[in-house]
Every structure is written in structure tokens, then in C-alpha cells.
Amino acid sequence: MRVIHFLCLGIGAALLTGCQQKAMVAPPSSAQICNASCDVVVSVTDTDPCIVSVGNRDIKVEGNDRVIRWKMDDASAEAKFRFAPQDGVKLKSPDPHGQFSGQGPQGGGKQFHWNDKNTVVHMYEYEVNVFKDNPHSGIKCKLDPRIWNS
Asked: Quick one: pLDDT band at residue 15, thresholds 50, 70, 90?
């Protein structure tokens, strides 16, 4: 009788734990679909304060081992905006599933790339960090979009 009692308690606890986990909200239908390498256009408005925007706030990655590449549009590059060398694009929270690697600038700071394993369904908030003139003392701008691994 005690074994059945403990078994029922264990099953009940497991069910309650499962119910407490947050269900992932689906990406919006307007999300940019990335099912091969993925280019995200970044624009910076040269005002005070500067404003960063991306072609699409949400990226939905489909398939494994995808490259995501953020690229300055021509006007932003000509205005001398560049991605911050270390954290031009960075996750706002730790990557508990080890999905992203190989982050870094390219093209003289006009591009920034990540490799996305996309083996775990999860939504990741990230930030885009750009600067003008000097990464330590120049104009700095930031944006907070999202990536949806599916």
C-alpha cells in the first residue's frame, strides 16, 4: 500500500512540475524566416540619440546549423557606424542550451555573424550594439530584437 501511495505522490509531483513550465509562445507570423544562411539588415539613424532598427524584429530559424549575419545598410556604413567588436550582437541572457557559437565581426565591423545550431526549440532575446567613431568613447546605440529557434 505504501509503494502505491509514494508512486501516486511521485506521479502527481511530476505532473505539477510539467504544468508549471512555461509554454513557448509561437513566433509572430511576420517573423523573418531563415532556412539557410540568414541576412538581417541593420539601419542606424544618425540622430541624437541614434536609433537602430532591423529589417524584421523577429527571426525564425528553421533547420540545423544556420548562419545568421547582421549587415549594416549602405547609409549606416557610410555614416561610419560599426558593430561593437565583442558584443555587436549578444544574447540578453545566458545560452543554457549552447545553441550559438562563432560570434564575431566581419567586413571591418560592417557585419556581425553567429552560428546557430538550432537543435532546441526556444526564443532568445538579443541586443544589437553599434557605435560611431570609437567603440569606447563614440556614439553608442542599441536595439533589443528576438530569435526563435524552431
From this structure: very low
